[in-house]
User: Fold this.
Amino acid sequence: MPFHRFKIGQQVVATAFGVLTGPYEITRLLRLDAGVPYHRAKKLPDGRERAISELSLRSIPNQPLATKPKLRTRNLGGAKSALPPRW
Assistant:
């Protein structure tokens, strides 16, 4: 299942025809459209907002990407086994 790679508040750059534009700051996560996540992003110098496909966004170096939750592990006699998280 697709998920949003970028977090709210993260700075990214957009690509338009292979040319980087930006920087932008993610302000909201939008719905999926045809399986592609969309983000609402604000251009930092002038503050204008727009909806941008995740396919058109790139992270700025030295900023972490959003990650999926990790499975917890339990040590059973020296061997680790992956368990689903308890809710």
